[in-house]
Amino acid sequence: MNQYARLLIEAGPLAAFFIANSQAGIMIGTAVFMVAISISVLVSWRFERKVPVMPVVGAGFVLLFGGLTLWLQDDLFIKIKPTLVNLLFAAVLFAAHLTRRNVLKHVLGSVLNLTDAGWRTLAIRWAWFFLLLAALNEVVWRTMTTDAWVNFKVFGIMPLTLLFSALQAPLILRHQVPEEPPAEKSSSAS
Fold this sequence. Notes:
It is found in: Cell inner membrane. With 190 residues, the protein is mainly α. It contains eight helices and no strands.
């Protein structure tokens, strides 16, 4: 699947949430988000024939906390979902670091080929970034209106994540393991 299709599949549910919230409020927005993220995971599986770990975890949280939001008619649950997801990702990365395992290498190893030191540094940086996102989400939902929180979720978290990812390029380039050239076939004339 090309990167534009992947971006559409991953960002589409968030866009649907934003549009539905702006037109019909947080409850309808949450319901639309739940449906859109379920479709997103299914489409991703259909094209790649594998279940992407982080989007599935995110979808599980959306379904759980979105379901609580709709069932209890309380938007608190959908608002704390990003905090809890980011705390979970940070905790997993920090725990893996302490036990000398590298979860990030397991998740991204097919995309990046880094030295062990590079993977460790990248994992710690992402763990701290996830803590920052959790803290920012808490500040925003506690101090601003629901619409302002939705705007932050759509136009704040995604750009911050893309910017943080881009800022990791020097580390990735510095710790990238060069690919070995394919072995040359020796031709033997008989």
